[in-house]
Every structure is written in C-alpha cells, then in structure tokens.
Amino acid sequence: MTTAHPHRCHPPRRALRGTVYTCWCRRRWVAFDSVTIRDGTVSALRPDWRAVAGVVGF
C-alpha cells in the first residue's frame, strides 16, 4: 500500500493584484503585490499569493 503525498497548490506565476485563484482542492488564494528592488530599480515583480482564511476543506 502506498501513501499519497500531500497536495501543494500552484497558483499562476503572473497575476494582477487582487486576482483570486481557486485550486481544484477548493483552497482559495488572493494575489498581493510583491516587488523586489535592487540598486534602486525594480528587478522582479511577482504576485505574493496568500491563502484566504475560512475556506472549507474536504
């Protein structure tokens, strides 16, 4: 008998702030801004995904 590995949600790498992503496992994520600044210039702009509280699981 094999054991299943825990599921990890994979929201998209690019999204606008405020975008809501719902995974097949019914976990909901909201995109917040995430900016990396090096030497005074923006070097990376990726969403900072955060899980929405109060989501009903299985």
What's the mean pLDDT score? Answer: 79
Give the total of beta strands: 5
The 3D shape can be described as elongated
Portion of residues in helices?
under 10%
Structural class: mainly beta
Major sheet size, sense and barrel closure? 3 strands, antiparallel
Strand content: 35-45%
Write a concise keyword list for the protein shown above.
58 residues, mainly beta, three-stranded antiparallel beta sheet, two-stranded antiparallel sheet, elongated
Descriptive report:
With 58 residues, the chain is mainly beta. It has a domain at 20-51. It has no helices and five strands. It has strands at residues 20-22, 28-32, 35-38, 41-45, 48-51. β3 and β4 (41-45) form a beta hairpin. It is elongated. The protein starts with 19 loop residues before the first strand and ends in a 7-residue tail after the last strand. The model has no long low-confidence stretch (mean pLDDT 79).
Please write out the topology.
Elements: E1 20-22, E2 28-32, E3 35-38, E4 41-45, E5 48-51
Antiparallel strand pairs: 1-2, 2-5, 3-4
Report a brief summary of the structure.
The chain has strands spanning 20-22, 28-32, 35-38, 41-45, 48-51. It has 58 residues and is an all-beta fold.
